[in-house]
Amino acid sequence: MCGKLKNINAAFAFFYFFVIGLLSKVTLMLKVERQTFILRRVNQHNKVLSTDLIRQIKVWDDTIRSDIRQLEEEDKVIKFHGSALSPSFHNTTFSKEVYAYQQKRPLHKKQYLLLKV
Q1: What three-state secondary structure class fits 28?
Q2: Of 39, 45, 58, 117, which is the most buried if we count CB atoms within 10 A?
Q3: pLDDT tens track of the chain, all 117 residues?
């Protein structure tokens, strides 16, 4: 009986220290803090991967996805294939904004045909 009790105590002690060890590595962040962290990273690097955020913040991937989704709804980031882009980094160019678009168009067609072969 005493041997079984020692095994139970040892198992409990192992479990207790394992859980305490995990909790000491986890930093609990509020939603606002996570989103501020994401925005800071996006502003620094123009692009941040969800996998990097998961590793840095130590949260589930669903949490990061929902944070990025909410930031996108607020037009603070652009969500793109497992990453978040800065709106200032995302540069869309429309045909009306291209200088001398009509003159360049025939050249683009010729270049396309040359590269297609």
Answers
A1: coil
A2: 39
A3: 555 545 556 666 566 655 555 554 455 789 999 999 999 999 999 999 999 999 999 999 999 999 999 999 999 999 988 999 998 875 555 545 666 767 777 887 788 788 876
The percent helix, strand, coil of the chain (3-state, each to 5) is: 70, 10, 25
Q: Contact 85/39 with Cβ under 8 angstroms?
A: no
pTM, entire model: 0.56
Name residue, tokens 């001398």: 100
